[in-house]
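Quick board copy: two proteins, each given as sequence then tokens.
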Amino acid sequence: MKKALFTVICTAAVLSLTACNSTNTSTNSSAMESTANSSQNQTSTVSTNANAPAESSTAPESSAQSEPSEPAPEEPDPETPKATYAFQREDGGVEILNGGDEGTEVTIPDTINDMAVVGIKGRPNMTYFPNAKTITLPKTLRDIDDYAFSGCSELTEITIPPSVEDIGEYAFLNCTSLSSITFNEGLTEISTGAFSGCTSLKKITLPNSLQELEQGAFDYDADVTVTYQGKSYTPENIGDLYALLYDY
């Protein structure tokens, strides 16, 4: 009886120990599996970070900054008045009646309202380009009329285009700073007083095409040397040039 009871107790103890070992083994297996999963997850995260592009130390520019901005419209210069001209129709184009440009470098347009500028007129005792140091004339111009640039005391140089045929009376009267004037072939007439009062003008070469030089085109006492067809004329013999070209 005692021996049977001992056997039952020992069997129960073995079963209990076996169950405990089984539980521990299951727990250890779960712990190892959890550790393995954690290790695997950690490796995946590192791999993802390793493949990710490196962060830039500079913040990316916005699309608004990357797109080129349109230039701001230029504001008109209040110190540069817009040139305006009064004009009238003339044979083959228009004739400017007065200037409206007060700049120092004046360019008179070739056309106004799509019509060629063929003439420039002036008026006695009126100065229409008071500050002009240089004046560029239209390539279409035929006539520089009476008083056109009279009183332009700041004007220093001018070129007469080959299209010009006639320079009117007192056209450059009292242009006291005018020291250089260039003529082109095509000019046929220079009228009375055209360059009177041009005290800075020392040398002029007239084109061979010139046919008429009216008396007093230059001041008789002006210190200017005029060359025409290879011969030079000074105040002492300028009368010979007038006699040669004056249409009596």
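And the next:
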Amino acid sequence: MKRIAIIGCGAAGMMAALAAANSSVSVTIFEKNEKPGKKIYITGKGRCNVTNACDQTDFFDHVKRNPRFLYSAFYDYDNTAVMDFFESNGCRLKIERGDRVFPVSDHSSDIIRTLFNAVKKAGVKVLFDTEVLSVETSGQSVSAITYADKAGSSKKGGDAPIMREEFDSVIVCTGGVSYPSTGSTGDGYEFAKAAGHSVKEPRPSLVPFETKEDWCRELQGLSLKNVGLKLFLSNKDGAEDNSKSAKKKKPVYEGFGEMLFTHFGVSGPLVLTASCHYEKDKKAELLLDLKPALSEKQLDTRVLRDFDEGLNKQFKNVIGGLFPSKLVPVMIRLSGIDPERPVHDITKEERLSFVRLIKNLPITVNGTRSFNEAIITRGGVDVKEINPSTMESKLIKGLYFAGEVIDVDTETGGFNLQVAWSTGHLAGTSAAEI
């Protein structure tokens, strides 16, 4: 009987096991944590954004790196198939804003339980507290894995015994290096390198930004809804003035939604999505539109009306209706207008400049936060060395990769988990073929 080892009992790993177990093969999952799906548990703020219910053709618009690589995997097992799997296994789902799909219960534990129950029902052997140390090859084929049985050592005392088992195929589903507390510590990259694979530099993605401006930190805790955000990138060679030239250029990202000010800069859904377009070797600037529903002309009409109604009032007492109270003193300071000035004394040029500030509030990005705060990892095993029709290594027969360990990443909204389901399913199906 063909023997398949799967390293990692997360989304990709469990889906690969289920797909492989449908054939007459022996499947074993090796998981170094004490339970399955530790990273699934924290996704979607503990609610688990299972997938996205968008049209099939729209899915690839949200994949930021190597979307074509995913064609076979996605069409083999798409978002509809994922939703059908959970529904048919008793986990009811719902679709929310942006086509995001969640369990009706709003508990990620229900997703994990449904998956793991299916894995057990399929007869898959799962070894917890078991850390894979190496993937062995013989010639150009997988031959065995070595692993440390931490569970055995805790029972008997002493060091974890080193074990070796022979397998016909190995599927690496170890994730990236984001949220290392969940067990994602880059093991899969080392297995890939040892087999001769190239690994694109891992970087944090879907991660908050650290910013230059002190006023961002002054606004810590302030959440803004229904705002617009643009991200501009330019060269670091000093040849361009970032703020001026960036406004003339096309943004690499433009979105609408919610963001949050923090003690280090900015976060929230808009910022996290913008971060997957960020390049660390470029200058980066955000332009925040506080009134995206209004054009500059419409906003100027609104501001002029407020000025007319409070003609003899001080500037600081007229603009309160435009912003949350915490933001008012910051906007006054950035405008350069004396807060004590009566509005009838403010010139048209000053007013128009204030309007432009509201529509184009600049924020300088110093960098991203660390992997500890990144939802996913950008980078990973080079897709040029993986067969997209099977997820099998082009270098080593019987070696497969699935999920976040591969150099594929997406925007927020359930797309990254869909990548895990799709690539895991294809890897499992392919590895089980006799």
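Board note added afterward: Confidence is low (pLDDT under 50) at residues 239-247.
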